[in-house]
Write a structure and sequence with these properties.
single chain; TIM Barrel; 2 domains; 8-stranded parallel β-sheet; 24% helix; binds 1-deoxynojirimycin; binds calcium ion
Length: 513
């Protein structure tokens, strides 16, 4: 278990949209390097970057054409290596995005695999043995070459499924994870990991980590596969950190992942908090966090004490936090996000409350995700300081609103969301109880018009976090004794014996007597 995860706080960077330094309208590695001080000064000590490898960008880079080469639009492998070094110099770890489930149709492995003559890549992808039979999957590619068979796709049709075998096999073309083809696929992916870890990256966010072994309803085959990967990684790269896009910590952490995300899909009730018509973080008091809390506690119980369950502020696949969480509610949402166990992940721009840009035409397979991927708003210069390219050349159009938030403006405003995020990260680093591995006990589960309150505890320190998004004061019972607050927003809690009253739209973190 990499020790550095004990207090890691992550910032997710969508490289296309972060900072463009050569005026081509697309963000680049140099842009990320230029902003490492900004990231460090906010208190982040880790970064996850979305895929930055050679790709036709049919799915924003999640369709890799060469796992070993940086996409030229971002820079070279040398630039990426420099990015790792510059980040490390500032105490920042960097995770790359590994896409093991599929490649682009342009990947040379797929080109070889399409050939009718048997070769080293024939079994690299999931193919049926007749073009008239389709695999049961997201869809398939048929008659794309003279190979007689259909190839399963893992996501979009430009993303053929790499072959890690089938857990339940019912057709002759379905291979076992122990067959030569699937074993070679896994070995090839291990080599990709070795290459970047040796170059200086600190681990990976793993795309669709649950999708590798097919016909695997309970995930048992995929869990076993990851256990194999981790037995090698732990030996060769014990400091490498791995976070899965899985959304079911009880499975992913059993597979050996150090962290798993709660996501907008899956059983976690994550959307109840920030992404639905009546989210918990709203002053209307109609939202309900209790199903989330119940499910979270179950996952923690089943996942064991070592794995980290990570609750992101958002990511490149869902609408921005600011779409449903309004005004000061964003501050309450961040109080929650930055005081929960697990490693926090903040999606670039969420720290300033960037809006979801409505009604955009899809860019690079973004579809309705495009509005959550618009270029970072740095300052009030042209293109919000993102790029010196003409506005029409920007990767994605920016929020057109005159009052769009910017980092520069919020840095100078002591009451800004950005400064609250900064303050909370610094508190998290100052208090072991608030850090990634600390314990949690809920004392109020955020039912409609109720507070969300929980004790955090580690190394003999215990704190109470209490949040009330509702527009009226709320009460809950609590047997502990609050002493001084280490943080408040919107007013202080009032304790009368075993009753605590929280002012409307407020949050606080309290020491206990
Ligand atoms: C999940 C990624 O986050 C998403 O952006 C991508 O489209 C799919 N996986 C396919 O790789
Ligand atoms: Ca650029």
């Amino acid at each position: 278990m990499p020790k550095w995860l004990d207090n890691a706080v992550f910032y997710e960077i969508y490289p296309q949209s972060f900072l463009d330094t050569n005026a081509d309208g697309i963000g680049d590695f140099q842009g990320i390097i230029n902003k490492l001080d900004y990231i460090r000064d906010l208190g982040f000590n880790a970064i996850w970057m979305n895929p930055c490898f050679l790709s036709p960008f049919g799915d924003a880079g999640y369709d890799v054409a060469d796992y070993y080469t940086a996409a030229p639009r971002y820079g070279t492998n040398e630039d990426l290596k420099r990015l790792f070094a510059e980040a490390h110099r500032r105490g920042i770890h960097v995770l790359l995005d590994l896409v093991p489930g599929h490649t682009s149709v342009e990947h040379p492995w797929f080109r070889e695999s399409m050939k009718p003559e048997r070769n080293a890549f024939t079994d690299r992808y999931v193919w049926t043995d007749s073009v008239w039979e389709a695999p049961e999957s997201m869809g398939c590619l048929r008659a794309v070459s003279q190979r007689d068979g259909s190839c399963a796709v893992n996501f979009f049709t430009c993303q053929p499924s790499l072959n890690y075998g089938y857990y339940n096999r019912t057709r002759p073309w379905q291979q076992s994870p122990e067959d030569e083809g699937p074993k070679a696929t896994l070995e090839a992916m291990m080599d990709v990991m070795r290459f970047w870890l040796t170059m200086g990256c600190d681990g990976f966010r793993v795309d669709m980590a649950m999708s590798l072994v097919k016909n695997d309803p309970d995930g048992l085959g995929t869990i076993a596969l990851w256990q194999k990967v981790f037995s090698v990684l732990e030996r060769e790269f014990p400091e490498a950190a791995m976070v899965s896009e899985w959304g079911e910590p009880e499975k992913s952490l059993r597979g050996g992942f150090h962290m798993d995300f709660l996501l907008h899909f899956g059983p976690s009730h994550y959307n109840d908090l920030f992404r639905c018509e009546e989210p918990f973080f709203s002053d209307r008091g109609l939202g309900d966090a209790s199903a989330f809390v119940e499910r979270y506690l179950e996952s923690r119980e089943k996942a064991g004490k070592d794995g980290l369950i990570c609750i992101p502020s958002g990511n490149h696949d869902m609408v921005r936090l600011a779409k449903h969480v309004e005004g000061d509610q964003k501050k309450l949402a961040f109080t929650f996000l930055l005081t929960m166990p697990g490693a926090p992940f903040v999606y670039y721009g969420d720290e300033i409350g960037m809006r979801y840009v409505e009604n955009l035409t899809s860019v690079e397979g973004g579809f309705d995700r495009t509005g959550a991927r618009s270029p970072m708003q740095w300052d009030s210069c042209v293109n919000a300081g993102f790029s010196a390219a003409p506005k029409e050349k920007l990767y994605i159009p920016q929020d057109p609103a005159a009052d769009r938030p910017t980092a520069a403006q919020q840095l100078t405003d002591p009451d800004s969301l950005l400064n609250l995020v900064k303050q909370l990260i610094s508190l998290r680093q100052a208090h072991p109880a608030l850090q990634n591995r600390g314990g949690i006990t809920f004392v109020s589960k955020g039912e409609p018009k109720q507070a969300l309150a929980y004790e955090r505890e580690q190394d003999g320190e215990k704190l109470l976090v209490a949040i009330n998004p509702f527009r009226e004061a709320v009460e809950f019972s609590y047997t502990g004794k609050l002493t001084e607050p280490v943080f408040t927003f919107g007013g202080k809690a009032f304790q009368n014996g075993e009753r605590i009253t929280l002012p409307s739209v407020s949050a606080g973190i309290y020491k206990l007597g």
